[in-house]
Amino acid sequence: MTSEHLDIHETPDGLMFKVHVQPRASRNRILGVFGDALKIAVTAPPVDDAANRMVLQLLAEALGIPAGALCILSGHTSRSKRIRWRIGGSPSEEGTAAKKLLLSIVHSGHGPVKVL
Predict the structure, then answer these.
(1) Which of 18, 48, 79, 83 has its CA 20 to 30 A from that of 34?
(2) What is the CATH code for 8-108?
(3) Where are the transmembrane segments (predicted)?
């Protein structure tokens, strides 16, 4: 896996980005960038929405935001998903800060985030 470009789009109410999920992993963690998506490993199986819930919980914890601020826009039954991060306040100012925070967890290698 190489560090490539994480594709992040600003929307009127926040940010949208892609994730690539590895269900049934040995532990929950953010692995880094995979193509244009954030690669996330979760221990939950891809059954009854368990892996999707774990992805949102892991991202929320890593970003320090409420899980309700994140939702899956597409890819509910796929490993490739599009995530929306709803941000309050001025979309452009808050969106820029949120984008920096998202990129910082990808590149930090600290906590649950590991870049490979």
Answers:
(1) 48
(2) 3.30.1200.10
(3) 54-76
